[in-house]
């Protein structure tokens, strides 16, 4: 029996200890925001946070996470429905295109801002290295991280994912 605390909720699962954490998160816990990309830890789509550190869940055996704190994309925003400052910045800078890499990108960025609230361009490049965006939105990702850093990475933004005001503001900013 493996005991995981995922997004603040204690979960018990009975899987082989060598099962990749990714498959436990997606198939056992039914949290499908974390994506399977390459299966060899090279693309970053499967990134989650283990005790605050960004890890590749496709390479991490569930046994390594036993008794640990795991945060997935579903746990990034507070439970009250407000957006995390990174999510609001992602919308403001129109980062998502196809969206497949976004959960991994956001989790890596959250780990960065937690450990370094005022990252330089070099810090951002280093922290985001290995997170592949097939749509090539690297410039927008960096800009969004800088915006979230200015807002404070642990603060929430006004609004929710359904808040049309944030989306309208993002469109106005893009037009500038």
Would you give an account of this structure?
The radius of gyration is 16 Å and the shape is globular. The chain contains six helices and seven strands. Mean pLDDT is 89; it is low at 158-176. The chain folds into two domains: 2-75, Beta-grasp domain (Ubiquitin-like (UB roll)), CATH 3.10.20.30; 82-175, Orthogonal Bundle (DNA polymerase, domain 1), CATH 1.10.150. The chain has helices spanning 21-28, 85-92, 102-115, 121-128, 138-151, 164-175; strands at 2-6, 9-13, 47-50, 53-56, 69-71, 82-84, 156-160. With 176 residues, it is of the alpha+beta class. The protein has a five-stranded mixed beta sheet with strand order 2-1-5-3-4, with helices on both faces. A two-stranded antiparallel sheet has the order 6-7. A hairpin with a 2-residue loop joins strand 3 (47-50) and strand 4.
SSE topology:
Elements: E1 2-6, E2 9-13, H1 21-28, E3 47-50, E4 53-56, E5 69-71, E6 82-84, H2 85-92, H3 102-115, H4 121-128, H5 138-151, E7 156-160, H6 164-175
Parallel strand pairs: 1-5
Antiparallel strand pairs: 1-2, 3-4, 3-5, 6-7
Helix pairs in contact: 2-5, 3-4
């Amino acid at each position: 029996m493996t005991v995981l605390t995922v997004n603040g909720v204690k979960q018990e699962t009975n899987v082989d200890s060598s099962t990749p954490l990714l498959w436990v998160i997606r198939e056992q816990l039914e949290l499908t925001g974390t994506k399977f990309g390459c299966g060899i830890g090279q693309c970053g789509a499967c990134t989650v946070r283990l005790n605050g550190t960004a890890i590749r869940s496709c390479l991490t055996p569930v046994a390594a996470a036993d008794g640990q704190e795991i945060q997935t994309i579903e746990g990034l925003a507070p439970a009250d429905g407000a957006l995390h400052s990174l999510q609001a910045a992602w919308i403001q800078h129109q980062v998502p295109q196809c969206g497949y890499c976004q959960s991994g990108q956001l989790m890596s960025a959250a780990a960065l801002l937690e450990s370094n609230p005022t990252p330089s361009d070099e810090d951002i490049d280093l922290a985001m290295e290995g997170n592949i965006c097939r749509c090539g939105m690297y410039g927008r990702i960096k800009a969004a991280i800088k915006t979230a850093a200015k807002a404070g990475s642990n603060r929430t933004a006004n609004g929710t994912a359904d808040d049309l005001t944030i989306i309208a503001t993002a469109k106005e900013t893009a037009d500038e």
